[in-house]
Amino acid sequence: MSERGRLSTDLMDEIAVLRARVAELEHAEATRPDTEQALRESRARLRTVVSNAPIILFSLDAKGDVTLSEGKALEALGFKPGQLVGKSVFELYQDQPDILKAVRRGLAGETFTDHAQVGEAWLETRFTPMIDSSGHVIGCIGVATDVSDRVRAERALRDSEQKFRLLAENIPGLIYLCHNDAPYTMVYMNDMAEALTGYAPAEFLDNCITFAQLMHPDDLKIVYREVEAAIAQRRAFHLTYRLRHRDGRLLWMEEVGVGVFMDDKLQFLEGYIIDITERVRDHDAVKQARDELEQRVIERTDELRASEERFRQLAENIDQVFWLTDLEPPRVVYVSPAYERIWGKPAQGLYDQPQDWIDSIHPQDRDRVRDSWQRELMTGELHEEYRIVRPDGAVRWIRDRGYPIHDEEGKLIRMAGVAMDITDVRDAEARARKVQEELAHVLRLYTVNEMVTGLAHELNQPLAAIVNFVHGTRRRIASGVMDQGQLMSACEKVAEQAERASEIVRGIRRFVVSRESNSVPSDLNRVVRDALDLAASDREAAQVTTHLELTDPLPSVDIDAVQIQQVILNLVRNAVEAMSEVEESHRQIEIRTELTDKGLVRVTVSDSGPGLGANAAAHLFDPFFTTKHQGLGMGLSISRSIVESHRGTLQFRNRTGQGRAGASFYFTLPISKVSE
Ligand code: ADP
Hints:
5-stranded antiparallel β-sheet; 22 strands
């Protein structure tokens, strides 16, 4: 019981005693007038006590009118002692049904304690009935104590308790109060205990399960150590550990706690625990992803290093020069060591001065390569063959191929390329060309040898004509019938025939003479005609009719005319020879020139011979393949290499359809640049 509660009970007892004493005194007063003085004194004492006691003492008659109102606590209600006497409680407190209800209970003879708020004050009032000698209730006595402070304190406590409960129940973590013993015996836990561990707070409080049991044994030792250290240093402990949930899952927990000290003695531990499993898992996932990434980077780096090493070995040991250059500004980024071997000078010169590349080029090739490089900067591809002059004066042939490198927006930023020394290839080609030229020459000699009879006949004609003219002229001069004009005309005819004879000789000479190939833009129709002239005697002897279908004009081609003439001559002679078994009236050669839809010039020589059997077709172009007694078997093989050296192709097919038999040989040549 509170101090005030006890006080009011004591007072009431005292008052009861006083009441008995008053009754006794009143009785004595009536019977013993001599005690009046003593009685007055006693009343005065009583009033003094009552008016100073921190209570309200009141009495009501049966109607509820106040018969007594005393006590210091009256002041808290705004009244003075005695002020309320004669007033009706039912009127005074007509607005406060709680008070009136208590008054009625008191007047009904009940003894009880009531709590009521009167104005600002909280009063605890003990009601006691007043009963007369015949047992009737004639009123009641009330002793009220002002308990406002206590009520306010209780309310504040209730409020704070409620707040704490709200907090404890709604906080997203486990709040606990436990003993600092080994199992961490719980004194209090909020409901989150169940969410976090699967066990209800009651199960912990009843010690069915302990927190230490749930902790991972490896972590428990660390937890004990950290808690102990924190308590010793009077600081908060911060823990991260694994906890086995009732359903078997192992969860990660984070805890912050402190020791609760009372009178400098550790009483409890209290703290806050949250589940950080998700966070740890996320962290683990991130860590794993990072580890994997790192691993991949390491592997990739190794791969790159290996591939770089392979490239380095390749670049350093291969005979080709790998190069990489920025375009704007021009800067050599890389050039492989073969550069130094081939160019015969340090690569550093190129890094320092990219212009050095152009400067090394042979003066005769330099402008062409520079122009081409400028042009290729737009299309982005370079394919050039050129000579370089090394510092020691040696000349080397280089084949250089460059490829474009674009940035993300498709802009040309770099060129990468491979340059190789093709001097040996060029030399071999030159040697092969020489051999081929010599062979072709031999073949021509052989051909002329073959043609000699025909040529003799051919030459014979103009020579015979000259002889005839000269004889005729001499006769007519001798007989004196020739005038000057006739003489002049005869001389012209002689000169004409002599000219024709010498042209035939020149043609043969051109054809036979050994010479280096020399390509110039030429008219292919002209070459065809010259070849036919050379084969004229053959054709005539063999009774072959020749049919020409020449496209005129025809774009010019860059050729060595004598060589192409030799090709056509070979084809014509083969055609003539192929028709030896054919009836004379059916011996026909067709020669056609045309421009193909691929922009090439094509020459076709067709005959009406037997065509080519499977064996001949398979070996036609093999050197020394011949089906003729007198044949060399070199004609087609040399013809093909001549055509190919002019960047053309030589092919054949058998003619079929519409009763036509025979073979067609045709070759194509690119038209010269000036004609394009
Ligand atoms: P040769 O004329 O000295 O035999 P070629 O290389 O010119 O050498 O010809 C090889 C062979 O190809 C000839 O022997 C012949 O069998 C065949 N041949 C060439 N042209 C024709 C043709 N127009 N018709 C049929 N066979 C041909």
